[in-house]
User: What shape does this take?
Amino acid sequence: MSNPFFEKSREIANDFLQSIVFIDDKAYSGVTEEDPNHDFDAQKVSMSFAKEKKVCGVYQPKSKEDIENFKSIAKKADVVILDWKIILSEDAVNDPNADDDDDPRGIYTLDILKDIFLDISKNKESLKLIVVYTGETDLNGITNQIFEELHKIKSDLIVESCIVSSSNIKVLIRAKSSVEDNEVDNKFNHIGLNDKIVKYKDLPEFVLDEFTTMTSGLLSNFALLSLTTLRQNSSKLLGLFNKDLDSAYLGHKSVLPNQNDSELLLIELFASSLIDILKYNNI
Assistant: This one.
């Protein structure tokens, strides 16, 4: 039996979610028969999110500079999805004789995760959903490694089966599936983790359900719905506070004994506009 409140929360969360970003070193490399579990079909993934009216950015890092750039992008995205095994082009150039199997897994993913967690530690009220979407099979080992590294930054983290989380952040470790959509991938039968496999076509629904689980509440629904409404009316706000009003603002500012009063009034006017929008939309 469905939960009406969760379904309403899911509807609100779906309207709020706009941007999902991926980072995967195999994003545009094509299918490799030698390592099919690590393939990542950027076209299929982006189209699956496009069908759900979501903006999906897929990035293939080739350098450490790319990793640094992605850190900033990850902070802006609603949901972040990371590969675990990321091998950069410059790593291969620096050590052409290196064996991929001997390379430490997760070094760049952990670097990005640490940066996100440090940012959230500074802004304690921030909320974030992250998925580590990997071709590796040792999901429990990856989960434990992530917990050990991130627990040093955020002491209230807890670890469960393929989940590292606290009250405002969740990292889910899930397996890629290289089989066709109508087939069953049984690669985890021996360890009972088949429910941790997510196919490309199921990613949008999976992300939405997990985000809803984090935000399903009266006040969080109010906040999400308010933010969605303000996003939808951002052009209207820009039109109200346009550059043609500069002369009136500066004229008002020049005649006041305390020029800070005009700045406070401007803030009040802008806040009043936000309130009017929320009231008009019956939030």
About this structure: Strands lie at 19-23, 55-59, 79-82, 128-134, 158-160, 163-165, 169-175. The chain has a mean pLDDT of 88. The chain has eleven helices and seven strands.
